[in-house]
Fold this sequence. Notes:
Strand content: 25-35%
Structural class: mainly beta
Largest sheet: 13 strands, mixed
Bound molecules: 2,6-difluorobenzenesulfonamide, zinc ion
Amino acid sequence: RLTSPDSLHHLPVHPLWQSPLTIPGGTRQSPINIQWRDSVYDPFLKPLKISYDPATCLHIWNNGYSFLVEFDDSTDRSIIDGGPLENQYRLKQFHFHWGAINDWGSEHTVDCKFYPAELHLVHWNAVVYPTFEEAVMEGDGLAVIGVFLKLGARHEGLQTLVDALPAVKHKDTVIEFDVFDPSCLMPSCPDYWTYAGSLTTPPLTESVTWIIKKQPIEVDEDQLEAFRMLLFTSDGEEEKRMVDNFRPLQPLMNRTVRSSFQ
Ligand SMILES: NS(=O)(=O)c1c(F)cccc1F
Ligand SMILES: [Zn+2]
C-alpha cells in the first residue's frame, strides 16, 4: 500500500537521522523517490558486472546505526564494473536500513512506495583514489547498489547472516564472518535505475553513483524481526531497538534518474 511520507512524521527520529534534511548547498542528496514514469531509458547503459570472492568477507559489526558486513578491500578480488560506471569499484561493506514495521524502512521509494528494508552494497573507486576515505570525498568516488527487500518467502542466503545477528546485538560488537557471497542477495532481474547522489549517513558527501535494482528480493517476517532485535545502544545502556534507521527523502533538484530497461 502507498505510504504517504506525512504519515511517517510521527516516527521517533533517532538523533543520527535528525541530521539536516539536506546539507547546505547540497544539490545531489540521497535518498530520493524514484518516479518510474519520469525515469529515462538510456540504451548506452551496460549490464552491471558483479564478481565477488566470498573469501574476502571479514566480519559483521554493529556500528550503532546498522550492522555492516565488511570485506577485505586491499585488492581487486571483489569488484563491480560496467553499468553506469567508467571503471571498476571495490566492495568495502554492505549494510541494511529497515523500519519498526513492514509499512516502511527503505531509504529510496518507488512511486512513493516504501519497502520494509533496503540493502546497500558499498563500493569505492580504487582505480582513481588511494583510500576509501579519500574516495568518499569525490564525485565519482563511490558506487552503491541498492536492493529492496519485500515481505515474502524466507531467503536462505540471508539466513546465514540472520543467524549471526544475536552476536552483534549491541553497538560496537563484532564477530568474525569468514565466508559469505553477497551475490546471493542479488535479484535475478538485471534491470536497474541509476542517478548521482550522496551518502545517506554523515558525512552525507555527494560521492555516490547509485544503482538501484528494480526487482526486490523476498525475505520473511522472522528475518525482518531479527533485524529489529538489534540495538542502537551499547551493552549496559538503556536499550533502544535499532529500527527506522533510514534518512528522510531528499529533493530531486536538477537530476534525471536513468533506467537500464524500457
Ligand atoms: N547508506 S550509504 O550506502 O549511503 C553509506 C553508508 F551508510 C555508510 C558509508 C558509505 C555509504 F555509501
Ligand atoms: Zn545505506
